[in-house]
Structure formats: C-alpha cells, structure tokens
Amino acid sequence: MFASSAVARAEPLGAGAATEPPSPPPAPTLSVASSPPATPAHPLESGTCGTAGLERVAEAARRGTVRITTHTNWGAGFLVDDTHVVTHVSVVGRPFKLRVHARDNLSIDAKVVFIDAFERIAILELDAPIPGKALELATSAPVIGSEVVAIAVPVDFGTREERFPTHRRGVVSDRDDDLLSTDALLGTNHTGGPLLDCQGHVVGIVVPSPSGVAVGQAPMGHAVPVGRIREARESVGKKPYQSKPGIVLGFATTFAGQFERGRGFIGGTIGIPMLFAEQWEFLPRFSAFVQVPAKGDIHLPLGRTDTLRLVGDVRIGYRIPLVSSPATVSLVPSIGAGWNWDFTKEKTYNLQLDDPTCMNQTTACSFRMVENEQESRTQTGAVFVGLGVHVHAMTFGYELRVLPSPDVKFIHQLSLGISTF
C-alpha cells in the first residue's frame, strides 16, 4: 500500500487521478546508539597543566624570571614590565649594590622603589629596560585543587640549565587573601620567583620555606597571592621610597697561620664585620696564635721556647664584585692597624752534678737535669695590608703585617674562614 500511495503522489494533479490524503509519518524506530563523547576541556582551562602544558608554561616563564644578587644574598625575581622586577623582601635585604641578571647574559643595576607594609613584596626599578620578557599577572588567585608551577634560578643560571630542573609542579592546597599554599616542594632558589597557573599567568611570589618540617609532615610551599602583588604594583611611585640607612652587621671566623723568621704559628680569629656605604667594610678582630714547636724541641730537651701571641686590630676594606651570577665573588683589598701582645715562656735545660767533688773521688758521678724557666711579655703596634677573596660565605685571605719595634719584623698571615657576607 505504501508503494502505490507513493506512486499516486508522484503523478501530476492535472491528469485527473484521484488523490489520497497524505499518510501519517512512520513511527520512529527506537535504536540504542552511543552518543559521541563530550569534548574534554583544554588542560589549561581545567586547572590541570598536563605534561606538555607544564613544559610550555615553564619554558615561557623562564624568559621573565631573573636572578637578583647583592653583596650579602641572592635569589629569584620576575619582570612585570620592561623596567620593574618583583621579588620577596628577603632576597634584597639591605639593598647594597643590587644587580638583576637575565638569561641572555644581561646584567643591570637596580634599586628598590617599593616595599609593602607587610614587608614581603619588594619591587625593583632597573637602570635600563629589559624588553619583551615581562610576565602577566593573573586576574584572580587559583582555586584549591588547581595545578601551579614554581620557577627557580638554578646553579647554572643562563647556561646549562637542563642539568638542574628549574620548575616544580604542585597543587594549590589552601589560600586566603594573604597567603597561598601548595604541596610543591620549594627550595631556597625558588624564593622571590613566580608561581604560575596553567595559562602561564603569575598567581604568587614564592616566600622562604620554613626552617624545618616535622617528622611525617608533608612538605609545603607558600606564596604571596597575586592580589597583593597588584596592590603593590599600583602603589609604586605614589610616594617616594625611603631606604633604611644603617650598617649591616655580620660575623666572621677564620683559621689562620703566621710565618716569620723561621717560626710558625697557628690560631684563629673572630670578628664582627660591618658593611656600610654600599661597598666599604669595617672589621674589628681578635686573634690568638700559639707557636708550632720545632722538631728538635720535642726530642732534645736542651732548650725550648713557647710563645702565645694575642692580636687585636681593625681593618677597613673595599669590596670589588668580580662575579655576581651564578656565584657571588668579591675581591677585598684592605689596610689596617692594631697591636700584637706576645707572651713568651722560655725553658732551658742544664746538666748539673749531684756532688761536685765526685770528680776527685773514685766513685762515679751522677747528674741531674735542671730546668730554668723565664717569662717575658712584649707589646708592639702593627700595621698591615691584605687581600681577600669572598666566595659566597667562604673567605680566603693573605696579609703582610709589619711590627716596627723593638726591631722590624715582617709576618705573613694566611687565613681560611666563613663570613656571613
């Protein structure tokens, strides 16, 4: 019937053929068919970076991440425009001779132009622009559970960085207006660097890690959220930034040896270095040395001299930066003056007959060893010139000391030690 109806509808109406009313459409046939899967959200939109997204974000962010060095510290930061760098306050400390280093071997002087009221965010202004590398700030903080990437400055900054991974991946575990937490394990070389979302936008500044983690406690990284960064950036230039004047105090200790007129002394020094006027160093020191006994003094008790030498002096040095990245290396020529106080104990040994008349007798003579001890004290002024090399916390030094009285003596001193700057 369906076939004849179709034929009848196909005939022309002018042929006089009888027409039938159109038949109702056939009932739909039920069939089980799987619907096409929904298109998954792009990894960057879902808060999950994925392996490819992670590498893409990290590679793009490295361009805008910089290394910041001072005479006393170093750390990471990032460009927010061609002439401004954001970092954590702990990286710059007292801003003596700040330099910013980009990955194309570019090194530029900088100065602090803003520190926020919480003393966490520092903004630096460059003496010359670094174009085309600024990172974009996110419009809002990431939600809990989304992935983030932290960028660091490695040991081989700007050279063979592939040997040292410079990014850490984590998940946002907590957040509020003042702090953002992630389970990414962040080190000291991340401090001041950017924390980014999967779009490559900055969502925070990495803050220093806690001094210790309790047993069984998961590692946790923290960052200042992007909202605070925006507030700080908008405040730059609204009122002049006044740097804090003053002197940076440190601590220095060294192991030292002295050599003069065939005699050797070993000892150590302690001091309180003071850094002022950017590159000048003032160092009061106290030292103690003991004389190294000659080899014959131990086995032949015919005579021996022991000397204790106490030294007090002050030194003024000038720091000349040699290398600022990746290491912090300074050359420090110095001059100084002080006093030497020598306490000398001299022992002599003589053979003495027990009975002086034994030589006239047939009996054998007996001898005994007689010890004579004398003490003396000598105090004299001293002047010296020196040359030191500072590599991070290590310090190596040579000094030529001149003692003008009672007779001129030249003392050579070598030292190796640790200094806080």
Instruction: Tell me the strand order in the biggest sheet.
Output: 14-15-17-18-20-21-22-23
User: Hey, roughly how much beta strand do the residues contain?
Assistant: over 45%
Kindly report the average pLDDT value: 79
SSE succession? HHHEEEHEEEEEEEEEHEEEEEHEEEEEE
Low-confidence stretches: 1-20, 27-46, 212-218, 296-300
Number of strands: 23
> How much helical structure, as a percent, in the residues?
10-25%
Shape designation: elongated
Number of helices: 6
Descriptive notes:
There is one protein chain. The protein is 11% helix and 46% strand. By secondary structure, it is mostly beta strands. The protein has an 8-stranded antiparallel β-barrel with strand order 14-15-17-18-20-21-22-23. A 6-stranded antiparallel beta barrel has the order 1-2-3-6-5-4. Strands 7-8-9-12-11-10 form a 6-stranded antiparallel beta barrel. A hairpin with a 5-residue loop joins strand 22 and strand 23. The longest helix is centred in the first third of the chain and has 13 residues, at 50-62. The protein is elongated. Mean pLDDT is 79; it is low at 1-20, 27-46, 212-218 and 296-300.
Provide a short characterization of the protein structure.
The chain is mainly β and 421 residues long. The chain has helices at 2-10, 43-46, 50-62, 89-92, 226-235, 295-299, and strands at residues 65-69, 74-81, 84-88, 98-101, 107-115, 121-126, 147-151, 167-175, 180-182, 194-196, 202-206, 221-225, 248-249, 252-260, 263-271, 274-276, 280-291, 303-318, 320-323, 329-353, 367-391, 394-403, 409-419. The strands form three sheets. The chain has an eight-stranded antiparallel barrel with strand order 14-15-17-18-20-21-22-23.
